[in-house]
């Protein structure tokens, strides 16, 4: 699989990575055997970038990634984790002593001395404007606790503030055919600054897979049940902020646009990969089959121009008004 450099980190990532939120929590139950099978399938398909976080299953996701990699010393996989969501979301918590403690816990969970990439995990907006926060992150690099740092953001405005910081290696942002606003300013700014873009929520929480109907019911412990209106965290993390009825209807239209040989999910992933400035896209997977199918998107032909135009038209007609004023 093709690899691209993650901005100023000078580290390489496969163009399709693997998001591992679902291996920790918030997507219904995934047992350990199934989780390891997902990681194995992704790696065997050429994936060299895993994205996790200290809050996913309160460390379970990090520990599962570590257990898999211990059993596969032949693999070279870059592991990015995130920090900051295990405490109250107030700027006062984003200080060096806390960063060290959070890093120490993630290093133990992942079984490494130095973390490849650590991202602030959607912190309060004022954090992005704090010199002290980024000085502290620079200190972590100097102490060799981390090789590089980035941010995971909710809004385009937060992304642009972070990109202006000279030490930021990457910005993780929601980008998919139902969330196109980053294409206008964020991706060009990142390219100019040499900052990597990690595209998350690429399938709009599964909507873009085309598998769901208005009658689909998710488990009670799945965020697609309990966070549809932002009850637990930012609403944009669930279905990209699109309401369920609109999302299902628009997803059916989207699925019909898939060229021959593409699944709807592969259409979404391929569309993201082809956006100038994207480094890697990190779909999750609940089973090995999904992981293999996602990775296969990297090897599909370039999308026809008429398909790209139709995807844009669908967004403009059905989605844009719902999401662009918020994120």
Can you characterise this structure?
- The chain has 327 residues and is of the alpha/beta class.
- It is built from eleven helices and ten strands.
- It has helices at residues 32-44, 60-70, 96-110, 131-142, 156-163, 186-193, 223-226, 244-255, 264-273, 288-296, 305-323; strands at 3-5, 12-14, 18-19, 49-51, 78-83, 117-121, 149-152, 168-174, 196-200, 280-281.
- α6 links the parallel β8 (168-174) and β9 (196-200).
- α1 crosses α2 (60-70), α5 (156-163) packs parallel to α6 and α8 packs antiparallel against α11.
- The longest helix has 19 residues, at 305-323.
List its traits.
single chain; alpha/beta; two-stranded antiparallel sheet
What count of helical segments does DSSP give?
Answer: 11
In the predicted model, the low-confidence regions spanning at least 5 consecutive residues are: none
- The main sheet orders its strands as 3-4-5-6-7-8-9-10
Roughly how many Å apart are the termini? 31 Å
Kindly state the number of beta strands: 10
Helix percent reads: 25-40%
State mean pLDDT (0 to 100 scale): 96
**What's the alpha carbon Rg, rounded to whole Å?**
18 Å
- Globally, the shape reads globular
Structural class: alpha/beta
Strand content: 5-15%
The major pleated sheet works out as: 8 strands, parallel
Topology order in helix (H) and strand (E) letters: EEEHEHEHEHEHEHEHHHEHH
Reconstruct the topology from this structure.
Elements: E1 3-5, E2 12-14, E3 18-19, H1 32-44, E4 49-51, H2 60-70, E5 78-83, H3 96-110, E6 117-121, H4 131-142, E7 149-152, H5 156-163, E8 168-174, H6 186-193, E9 196-200, H7 223-226, H8 244-255, H9 264-273, E10 280-281, H10 288-296, H11 305-323
Parallel strand pairs: 3-4, 4-5, 5-6, 6-7, 7-8, 8-9, 9-10
Antiparallel strand pairs: 1-2
Helix pairs in contact: 1-2, 1-10, 5-6, 8-11
